[in-house]
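[09:14] KT: can someone run the structure on this one? pasting the chain below
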Amino acid sequence: MRMQIDVIMDYQLPQAEPVLLTLAAAQTKGQTIEESLLEVEGARLHWVEAEGMVGQRVWAFLTGDRFKLHYRARVAVTRPDVALHALPATHFHDLPGPVLRYLRPSRFCQSDLFTDFVAEAFGHLTGGAKIAAMRDWIAAKIAYVSGSSNPATTATDTFGAREGVCRDYAHLMCSLARAANIPARYTSVYGAEVDPPDFHAVAQVWLDGGWHLVDATGMGTPARLAVIASGRDAVDVAFMENESGAQPINQVIQVSDCD
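[09:31] RB: done, structure tokens below
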């Protein structure tokens, strides 16, 4: 399928300063960027790789304190929807070096605190069947409630509160998978069925020698998501970063099928 992506952002900054952005769809396995245009009013752009992870980042060097952006892209997604249950896990000693980091706890994914729960709730399952059961558990037990969390909310907070948004679903999914010794990384995506339309977050798990998208919110399937970037948790793939903070004036994200 092909996806048309349009992003408009308008923010007020306290002062003119560089802004780091991670919002361009990635040229990566399962998707091809057919068209891409990023414009930031009055800014010089400098693209950089995303620290060895999926995706690219771009510095916008502003000349004023108003940040206005338009990003447009057309992405051909060739990634199939795969039945997780059929996918085996990879033995710890066979994992590629770059994948090992996604077994470890991180700031928002305290997987070491979920070991006992995962063993009790999912210990009878293996591989993709275990991941599917975790996904279904999160979907059933966690309520999607806009505004129920904040940038400091961790996976353990979400587990206790039983509510959150896509960011929290992805953190919890990554934490449970890592607690079961299945590598998992936090992934930012665009999806045509995301409601409300926004930057979306899912997990990617390493099964059968490759990464597979898992959306516990149920808003997207692998064949209908365009990957932006991946990392240990939300810290690694924030869509916008600057030193002094910013006040949003307007932000519109539109994603649609264009086949």
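[09:33] KT: thanks! Residues 127-141 form the longest helix (15 residues).
[09:34] RB: yep, looked fine to me
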